[in-house]
Every structure is written in C-alpha cells, then in structure tokens.
Amino acid sequence: MRDFNDWLAKFRPSIADYKYYVDFNKVFNNVNAIKIPLNILNSLIGSKNIENEFKSILMQYPETLSCIPILLAKRELDIMAMDEEGQIDFHFDKPNCSNEEYAKFMRKTGLFDLMENHIVNNLVDYVTGIETGLDSNGRKNRGGHLMENLVESYLNKAGLVKGVSYFKEMYIHEIETKWGIDLSSISNNGGAEKRFDFVVKGENTVYGIETNFYTSGGSKLNETARSYKTITLETKDLGYFKFAWFTDGYGWRKAKNNLKETFDVLEHLYNISDLENDIILKKLK
C-alpha cells in the first residue's frame, strides 16, 4: 500500500524548460506580420500635428488601422468604448467609423499622447514588449503540454510506439470503435464525449490516460480531482478498460484532500517520481 503523504511529498515545484517562459518565435512572428504598418505609424512619434497626420495616414495606408489594437495590448480587432457622448464599436479590420472617430479613439485611449510626447521611440520595439507580455499568459497551456510531453517521453522509453501501442488524444467513441469495447458508463450512454490525452493498448487492457501539472492552487484542481474520481468509479468494474492519471505540482498542496479522495480509489494515479521509476513499464504494458 502506498502512503499518500509520502507520495505527495515527492511532487515538484516546476517542470518548466527554457522555452516555457516566453515563446520568442511566436512573438517575433507576430511583430513581423505588422512591422510595415507599425513603421508607417512611427512617423507620428514626436509629431506636432499628430491628429491630422494620423488621418492622412489612414487615407493613404488604411491597412495601418489593423495594428492599432495591439498598441493597447488587445488581440481582438473590435473594441467598444463609451464616454458621455455614447458608445462606439470600433472595427479595426473592416473600418466602420470615420477617420475623425478613429482619431478620437487614439486621443481618448492615450495613444496619441504615447507617440507625440516621445514616451516611446519605436512602435516595433514597443509592440515586441507587448507581445512578450501577452505571451506570458500562455504559460498555463504550455505547462500542460510540458506534462504531456514528459509522459509521452516515458511511454517511448517503455518501448511503446505511437499509433501502434499508444495513441494521443483519442475520444471515447474512437476507443470503442478501434477495440470493440463498451465505454457507455463514462459517456452517459453516448451523450457525453470525452477525450483522453493518451490511450495505451496493454496486453489485455486499454488504458485511458490524463496528464496535468499544477504549479498553483485553485478551484480547477478540486474539479479535476472530483471528475477523475468519478471516472474511476464508473470504470472500476470494466475488466477491459482502466483509467490512469499522471499529475504533479505544488498546486496540489492546497487541494490535497480532494486529491487524496481520488488517490484512495484510483489504482493508476502517478507522479513524476513514479515515471522515473518506470511505472509505465511495470504497470501499463
């Protein structure tokens, strides 16, 4: 019998690699895509007649309009704004307002002030900084992919072959069709569709695998633990299918009670330390 507290004590604070913090390739590609219109708008920096010059640019180079939202750290090309005169829905991909109204937008949001008073010297550099900041919001998703990649590396280490003995991102109906098994107990008789991160075809058992890593706590962890406990209970009498979960991260320290409830009923609940001790080779083949 495994001891939950000993098992939890082996959880890691992070599995971040060097690419986790900022995806600079994505940042530079996003900036390069609008580099020309940004350089056109650069002519407004330090302008003494910025409003008229801006409207002139829109007349000559209307494509510059599409790069304005990112100056406010927004990717959406539609922005609503309201003042005492009412609300306007500004479209920046397909212009729907007059040049005067777009100039008002620039003035009221502070973008004219940013440029005419030399608060920035180059909009390309400025947007590079914005893109870097926005990309940091993607760390949560990258963290999830890091755990997936880690688990997959151990599947490979155990001698499993993608597309042969293990499969990535399979839905319940695909599993049922491929191996002729009944998983209606976890699909609400076909009314709900679930996708597993990995599916391993063992000698006599099909394993549906979920992976995640949590660096911080939150309600999501409790929901996940409860959901996976439910899957465990719904499949416990199926001799041909077993649920397996690989998780880790200090975030579980604040949600350990819910995790323990799942630990107590889920045979195949493992952490990174288990992976390092060849648990896949020992249990899932």
How would you summarize what this structure contains?
By secondary structure, the chain is of the alpha/beta class. The protein is built from 14 helices and seven strands.
Structure, described:
The chain has 14 helices and seven strands. 46% of the residues lie in helices and 15% in strands. The chain folds into two domains: 160 residues, no CATH class; 114 residues, no CATH class. The mean pLDDT is 94. With 285 residues, it is of the alpha/beta class. The strands form two sheets. The protein has a five-stranded mixed sheet. A two-stranded antiparallel ribbon has the order 1-2.
Question: What is the secondary structure topology, with strand pairs?
Answer:
Layout: H1 4-8, H2 24-33, H3 35-41, H4 50-60, H5 68-71, E1 78-83, E2 86-91, H6 99-109, H7 111-116, H8 123-135, H9 139-157, E3 166-171, H10 172-179, E4 195-201, E5 206-213, H11 219-235, E6 241-248, H12 256-265, E7 268-270, H13 272-276, H14 279-283
Parallel strand pairs: 5-6, 6-7
Antiparallel strand pairs: 1-2, 3-4, 4-5
Helix pairs in contact: 2-8, 4-6, 11-12
